[in-house]
Amino acid sequence: MYLLSDGSGYPVLFIHGMPTSRRLWSGIIDRLRDHFTCFAVDLPGLGRTPQIPYGPRQLEVLADQIEEIRVKNNIEKWHVVGHDAGSAVAVHYAHRYQERVDHLVLLSPAVFPELKPFAPFRLLRTPIIGEMLAPIVSFFFWRVGMRLAVEKRRAELKNVVRDFRAPFSGVWGGWRLMSVLRFGDPADVLANIPEILPQLLVPTLIFQGSHDRAIPQGFAQRASALIPQSKVVMVDAGHFIPLSNPETIAGELLDFFEVSGFERNTKTARATGISMFSPA
Question: Is residue 15 within 8 Å of 41, Cβ to Cβ?
Answer without folding.
Answer: yes
